[in-house]
Design brief:
The protein has eight helices and 13 strands. The protein is an alpha/beta fold and 333 residues long. It has a single domain, classed as Aminopeptidase (3-Layer(aba) Sandwich). The protein has an eight-stranded mixed sheet, sandwiched between helices. α2 packs across α4 and α3 runs parallel beside α4. The longest helix is centred in the middle third of the chain and has 21 residues. The protein is globular. The N and C termini lie far apart (76 Å). Bound molecules: zinc ion. Zinc ion (ZN) binds next to loops.
Length: 333
Amino acid sequence: MKINHGVIFAVLLATASVVNANSQTGVDTVRDWVSFLASDELKGRANGSPEITLAGDYIASHFEAAGLTAVPGKDTYFQEFNNDLEHPYRNVIGYLQGSDPKLAGEYIILSAHYDHVGNVDGTIFNGADDNASGVAAVLGLAYRLAALKPKRSIVFITWSGEEEGMLGSQFYTSQPWLPLEDAVLNLNFELVGHTGGLGKRQFWITGAEYSTLYSSLKVIGSRNDWSVSRSPFADLQLFWRSDNVSFVRLAEDQETQTLYGIPAHSISTWGQEGHYHKPHDDADALDYENLSGLIAVTSNMVVELAGQPEAVQWRDNGQLRLRQFKDRPVHSE
Ligand SMILES: [Zn+2]
């Protein structure tokens, strides 16, 4: 019998990469990531601390292991600011080239902040749900999407400085590493580890009424037996309180009261459980089975969105006039 070793090897490799992507985002793995980032050794990942520098190195090493590269034209995963500090603030940025030559020039940004509030009056705030959980989602998406090869390119960013007023995302949008005209969507992950308040296999998004994203996610979610809903906390105006908003108002026209930006939303499972910015926001309180499932379902969503000929668009909503950044009026002198 003649065995085609080439084919067998190719199949083994293909199987291995699927198994890998699954095991690399499985329950135990995801628990390990959060447990490291939210351990007492990292002292609550305060901005400017040596410990958040360790957290950034950890994230970058996972980007590399997942197969992400630095953004084209850069030779580092780290975008530094507040450079005069001994431990500058660093956004950690990884890149996955799209698989379709026609669509790869456009990209989706997947993001989460990785800083937290550190040590408050002698107590370490570990920030497991806020926001080691969101970082774990971004790491999981990096491993899965590297194997699933979406058509548009994907940029993965973990922000620093969020707890001091979304400094990382504001710095990035003021000095972007890729043209913002080519960005089609930002999905930002915030507090995705708890299910006690709202239950399993569900998440909600902020600003659902502002773009076509919500209806797309609902359809893809239901196919995967997940439900997607609007923010249950309308009064809290959460759309404006996470890093997604830095992409919403990239330019502004006062005269027509129009914001020019990229459809950008935050994803969360938070159900008012009471751990937000409290010392008991610890790693042992998270639902890792659900978080691992959330990574799987959002991977499927991103693959689909990245392959749609027509990207997500702002929609008329009766509240705000929002337009695509690339359509902004450019004033010549
Ligand atoms: Zn926070």
